[in-house]
Design brief:
By secondary structure, this protein is mostly beta strands. It is elongated.
Length: 96
């Protein structure tokens, strides 16, 4: 990830499992439970790549799930985490 906001920023990447019906949008995060998160501060024009290990399991019997990573930042004015509207997902098929 990279920061081009013109100021240092405190970010949080949230990992969730979702279905096609529970994917996030550009205005709302997924309503699925957060399974893991990573927090980091990036200076302006700073970037960071890091490997992640995540758990994967069937979601309510679904054989096809989406690995979802949402980007959040800490809003110092409101003193709360705010969803940026940026996210990425990767569909996988689960077979047993």
């Amino acid at each position: 990830m990279a920061n081009y906001l013109g100021r240092p920023e405190y970010f949080r990447v949230v990992y969730k499992l979702a279905t096609r019906d529970t994917l996030p949008t550009n205005t709302t995060p997924s309503n699925e439970t957060a399974l893991r998160e990573w927090r980091l501060v990036l200076e302006d024009r700073g970037d960071k790549a890091f490997p992640v290990n995540v758990a994967v399991y069937s979601l309510r019997g679904e054989a096809r799930v989406a690995l979802v990573f949402e980007l959040w930042f800490y809003d110092n004015t409101r003193m709360e985490w705010t969803y940026t509207g940026r996210w990425v997902h990767l569909y996988i098929n689960i077979t047993v």
